[in-house]
Each structure stands twice: as C-alpha cells, then as structure tokens.
Design goal:
Elements lengths: L14 H15 L7 E7 L3 H13 L3 E7 L7 H8 L8 E4 L9 H8 L3 E4 L20 H15 L4 E5 L5 E5 L6 E4 L8 E3 L2 E5 L7 E6 L13 E6 L2 E5 L3 H11 L9 E7 L11 H6 L3 E7 L13 E7 L2 E4 L2 E5 L2 E2 L5
Parallel strand pairs: 1-2, 1-3, 3-4, 4-8
Antiparallel strand pairs: 5-6, 5-16, 6-10, 7-9, 9-13, 10-11, 11-12, 13-14, 14-15, 16-17, 17-18
Helix pairs in contact: 1-2
C-alpha cells in the first residue's frame, strides 16, 4: 500500500515542475501561513497532484484536509452546490481543485465574505500533464495586474463592448450596472477570491449579446479548434452553430447539460498572461493567453452577474480588436498603448 502523502514520481511527467506549481499556489497566490486551516476539494483523479499542494502547505505550518469528491461529471456544478454547501465552512483557505471548475454560488461567496480565501484551480488538461507543471503559472502577477488595470481603466466606465477579428467576428456586448474586475492567481488582489486564470472579466448582461463569432482558438474543456467556424448570437444566447466537426462537438457538449441557460452568454474575458499559449491543452491556460478574448456561458453568479445555470464553460478567440464604447483598447490581440 502506498504511504499516505507520498507521490510516486511517475504520477506526473515532471515532478519538479509540479512541486514548483505547488509552491506558487501556496506561497505566491494564497500566501498560506502557519496555523491556518486549509481544505482542498478534489476528486480521485487528481488526488496525487493535490497531495503535493497539501505537503507544501503543511511545510509552512498549515493544517490541511483533502475533501474528496467522487469522479463524476462535475461540469454540473449547480447540482454539486446543492449537495455540498457546508464543505467550506470554518476554513481560512479553500482550494477548489476537481477536474472541472466548482466555483460555487452560496458556499464560496459566504466563505469569502466571512474572511476566507478561495482559489479556483480546475485540474482538467488534455495532454496528460498536471496543471501544476504548466509554465503559465510562473507569470508575474504584478505584470498581469498592470495589463488588467490598463484595460479596466476603459472597460469599467463603458456601457458597451465590441469585438471584431480578421476572420469575421463582430460581436456586441452590454455591461450596464456590471462591475468588471480581474484575476491574476493572487487571492490578495481578488479580495479573497482568486482564480488560476489570468484575465480581465466582465459579468455581462445575459440577454444583450448579438452578432457573429468566428471561433478560431479553443473550445475550452474540449480542446483546440481545428478549423474556424461560425456561431450566431441574438438576445444574449447562441442561436446557431455552424456544423463543422468542431461546431458539432460544441453543439453536443452544450446539449448534454440539458439546460437551456447554458446557451446564454454570461462573461466577457480578456487573457493577460504572456506565458500562456492557446494550444487546447488546458482550458485555463487557453483563456489566460494574452492576445485572446473569451466568452463564458451559463452561470456567472460568482463573477458578479445574475445568472444561475448548471455549469459554466468558455470558448476562446484569437487576436481580437476590442472596443470599450467607441474607444479601441486592443488591436489584433495587442493592448493599444495610445489609448491612454
């Protein structure tokens, strides 16, 4: 029998890189201190990876528990919420690290409001590496913050956002009454709420998105787009998906939720991590990539929106030109410095 806490070297492609990731999560992002209580919510598939994080946090004097979930389809996080709200009570630090995101509406918001620190660390990858091994985790949070603040200077006061691309994307979003913010890994910068995704995010109005998107980057959890395809939007929801191979895959994925709310746009995001690559290997890395923007669908309560759904997923577009009202803030994936 394997000794509890021991991590066989063949569980990760590169154990040293995985240890580096555990150190970043512990020391840089969550700034775990001696005597703090930590719960890491994970599933059977990722237990060995999260044991590394547990060991690192214990090395600084924290008291750490691993809260196990069955290896089921945790895309349906709305259902998970209903069953497990109490899991995050009475902890200083909470790590959500199942295969899919388990950012919860009632439990995590209450915990953060009470002073806990929460990190969303979805472990899903498509290349058999642990997310802890990825280089994008080493991005300097301060540099990401600087890019985010530059963009937010224009986004926060705007009512409308527009995105175009050379392939034909032309999409309009509205954010009246919605507060834009950013993630850069650090709980301190997120007022206790952190994500491993490096991005500016806007919980857009859920019934206002319209236009055409030509998806050319990533299907999120489903991996890289092989050939660009069109998606039509009206009244805030997807109305048509071009039935190419990737389009068919996306259609089936959304249908499987059996929840019409999953067709609704709920988040507008801009990647701010220059160490990330949108290669389809890890959806968190894809949506973090500088030079991309993404649309999130379904639930956006945790981001400051008003929409409940049985899950949340993102699709990522390359090299966008972005306008906040009439002000261009990004051109072909590069922040417009002259916008100042």
């Amino acid at each position: 029998m394997r000794r509890r806490g021991a991590v066989p070297e063949n569980d990760m492609r590169n154990l040293e890189l995985a240890k580096r990731g555990a150190e970043i999560v512990t020391n840089d992002w969550m700034q775990v201190r001696s005597g703090e209580s930590v719960v890491i919510v994970t599933d059977e598939e990722h237990i060995r990876e999260l044991e590394l994080v547990k060991q690192q946090m214990e090395s600084v004097g924290a008291v750490v528990e691993l809260e196990m979930r069955p290896r089921d389809d945790t895309r349906f996080v709305g259902l998970l919420d209903q069953d497990h709200d109490g899991v995050v009570d009475d902890y200083d630090v909470i790590i959500g690290a199942t295969n899919y995101s388990i950012v919860t509406k009632p439990a995590v918001k209450v915990a953060v409001r009470s002073g806990a620190r929460f990190l969303s660390l979805p472990m899903s990858t498509n290349d058999d590496r642990s997310i802890l091994e990825y280089d994008f985790l080493t991005m300097d949070p301060q540099k990401s913050r600087a890019v985010a603040q530059e963009l937010l200077a224009f986004i926060k006061g705007a009512e409308h956002l527009r995105v175009t691309t050379k392939l034909g994307t032309d999409l309009r979003f509205r954010k009246i009454g919605r507060e834009a913010s950013y993630f850069n890994g650090m709980a301190k910068d997120g007022r206790g709420f952190a994500s491993s995704s490096f991005e500016v995010y806007v919980p857009i109005e859920e019934d206002q998105t319209s236009g055409t998107g030509v998806l050319d980057g990533s299907l999120g959890y489903l991996g890289k787009v092989d050939k660009p395809f069109k998606i039509l939007f009206e009244g805030g929801r997807i109305t048509e998906i071009e039935q190419s191979p990737c389009g068919t895959k996306l259609s089936k994925y959304i249908e499987d939720f059996n929840d019409p709310r999953m067709y609704h746009t709920a988040e507008f995001g801009i990647g701010t991590n220059s160490f990330s690559h949108c290669d389809g290997n890890c959806y968190i890395e894809d949506e973090s990539s500088y030079g991309t923007f993404h649309i999130g669908f379904g639930r956006n309560i945790a981001l400051g929106g008003e929409f409940e759904a049985d899950g949340h997923f993102d699709i990522i577009f390359l090299e966008p030109t972005i306008y906040a009202d009439e002000q261009m803030i990004m051109k072909d994936g590069v922040v417009v410095k002259a916008a100042k």
